[in-house]
Amino acid sequence: MRRKITLKDIARELEVSISTVSKALKNSEEIGRDTKEKVQAFAKLYNYKPNNIAISLKNKYTKNIGVIIPDIVHHFFTTVFRGIEKYANSKGYNVIICVSDESFDKEVINMELLANGSIDGFIMSLSAETEEKNDFSHLIEVTNQGIPLVLFDRVTDVINCDKVILNDKEISFSVVQKFIQSGRKNIALVTTDNYFNVSKKRMEGYKSALEHNGIPLNENRILTLPYHDEIEDTQITDFFNSNEIDAVLCVNEIFAIRCMRVVQKMGIKIPEDISFVGFTNGMLSRYASPKLSSIAQHGDKMGEIAAQMLIEKIEREYIEEEDEAYRTEVIEGTLIERESTIN
Amino acid sequence: MRRKITLKDIARELEVSISTVSKALKNSEEIGRDTKEKVQAFAKLYNYKPNNIAISLKNKYTKNIGVIIPDIVHHFFTTVFRGIEKYANSKGYNVIICVSDESFDKEVINMELLANGSIDGFIMSLSAETEEKNDFSHLIEVTNQGIPLVLFDRVTDVINCDKVILNDKEISFSVVQKFIQSGRKNIALVTTDNYFNVSKKRMEGYKSALEHNGIPLNENRILTLPYHDEIEDTQITDFFNSNEIDAVLCVNEIFAIRCMRVVQKMGIKIPEDISFVGFTNGMLSRYASPKLSSIAQHGDKMGEIAAQMLIEKIEREYIEEEDEAYRTEVIEGTLIERESTIN
DNA sequence: AAAAACTACGAAAACGGTTTCGTGTTGATA
DNA sequence: TATCAACACGAAACCGTTTTCGTAGTTTTT
């Protein structure tokens, strides 16, 4: 088992000093031609690679970024992550990922662990529990330490940092608007509990579109489904039985698929009798039958932008520019129309 | 912006030596009661946390494990990853993830980057290109350096290391067997190019089940679809038009869904006229219509076992037990029967 | 009272690099 | 020939820990 070769090894072998080796490998002008060639050749031969940890310790940066997300088995987060990883990699950064599993405690623990020198900055989306508790002291702690932070999708106004979000309210508004323009009046919203910031925003868009068109808000047309627990079909069946509904906006594609199933079993035709639109343009939307019209959240792009903002902040630190201007980047969702809506 | 406090800071402030502080914080017997209390109180007050990087440099381990997978937006890998993350976290390890994007070069680059001190071990699944090229020199390089490696799912016989795989051949065999027992005789296989080890194994199972039942192999009943490029429906349509098929085994759920669609459009009834089973028991299987009977690969479990094997190897290194015994753990797939098969 | 044994702490090396600041040799210049 | 850059390199500090070993000062033993 070959051990990894170090500067010291090279220095000893070539009978020069460690500093000379270090400089020679960086092609420093200080070192003579012959020595440089000799050192470089030797290093290549023995496949010398500098130790990342040592460099990190010396230079105070790790070239790692920490990503904390609530769930990895989730199409949206997964695409965001892909965007982050792609951009970060292109800039020479690695990604350490932690899954909070929607738990406040795990989020805190992971964050503190990584904050102790393992990463140069964070990209995260808040766990459900954190949003519910409204406790962001761990975020404050981290930003106080001067660690850059970018929040995406599940964000909070409490923390002052860079953010990337979807135009949830506006896109919801426009979808409902579209429903109305195509002649639908009895529009339902299927959502999660309101402590999700995004759900709240989407509901705002829904309500405001109704209002904008003079349609009175009917709270009975809003169905709140549990986010993680098993959903019972009966709840959905009851909902559609006791309401005449001709269009539905769902805050995620699973809700949409579930509802479509129930509705189809009741003999209602999609999209002739009822239209469906869901958030999250994932696999399910593409392969449902009928294919689900869906709001693309452009996770890849969100991830890329988040990574870009973060790395910019990280690298600005070194130029010591204390220009604390935080941006909130708004990504525009796009409605991908498929078979579950009429035109 | 509060800077992070170090041992040196505490030592200076309390007018003791750095070593004393270090020992006091570890509750060493060497240090007097009073001093210990003083130091600990001070550390707590200023929220001292040791710097991970410094510890890593000193102790030669990072408590990070590197995961390299071909794709993150993929249900199976995502579940494996969840299993890894969960177990690793419970053991105090962080996970650095790199996506090879099915590219050989990216796999190599990422691996070499991480191998330079950033991680204590690797868990990986080979990229398509790597399997195709059959070039594993980067893996050899890494294991030669003494870095533990666990391969899962997409593995190779060339490398001698711990592995976690599915019983691909056996489970395929048993599914085809089941088809036959339920009276189906014209059984198709929809697969990818054969350089995927798993596809090869699955095909072996398929063929061997036919043989076992005295059914002659008909190569026309094997459809090979491109893995990543867009699939054209026409290819599928032609396949089902020119073959009388009453049961289909697909090596992934996307292929299955695509085929089911085509077949349904042709007016063929599932499962009355034709049965479908796919690998990867993901969202698509659960929400397809009809719901797809599917082989659960137990990604969570694979991930957990892989992480367990890796961490065991990592921590054994310190006990310096050079007992190079590599295991291959075989996970048993289970057929989840839903609506696309008869009983 | 001298020797031995503790007690409580500090100095320093080490991990593997980077970087600043000398310094001994050259060759050119005055 | 004395002076002075330029050149080519080395010594040493530093990043933040851990850990070994040495050692004053005190207590126990004989």
Automatic annotation (TrEMBL), chains A, B:
<dbReference type="InterPro" id="IPR001761">
    <property type="entry name" value="Peripla_BP/Lac1_sug-bd_dom"/>
</dbReference>
<dbReference type="Pfam" id="PF00356">
    <property type="entry name" value="LacI"/>
</dbReference>
<keyword id="KW-0238">DNA-binding</keyword>
<dbReference type="Pfam" id="PF00532">
    <property type="entry name" value="Peripla_BP_1"/>
</dbReference>
<protein>
    <submittedName>
        <fullName>LacI family transcriptional regulator</fullName>
    </submittedName>
</protein>
<keyword id="KW-0805">Transcription regulation</keyword>
<dbReference type="GO" id="GO:0003700">
    <property type="term" value="F:DNA-binding transcription factor activity"/>
</dbReference>
<dbReference type="InterPro" id="IPR010982">
    <property type="entry name" value="Lambda_DNA-bd_dom_sf"/>
</dbReference>
<dbReference type="InterPro" id="IPR028082">
    <property type="entry name" value="Peripla_BP_I"/>
</dbReference>
<feature type="domain" description="HTH lacI-type">
    <location>
        <begin position="5"/>
        <end position="59"/>
    </location>
</feature>
<dbReference type="InterPro" id="IPR000843">
    <property type="entry name" value="HTH_LacI"/>
</dbReference>
<dbReference type="GO" id="GO:0000976">
    <property type="term" value="F:transcription cis-regulatory region binding"/>
</dbReference>
<keyword id="KW-0804">Transcription</keyword>
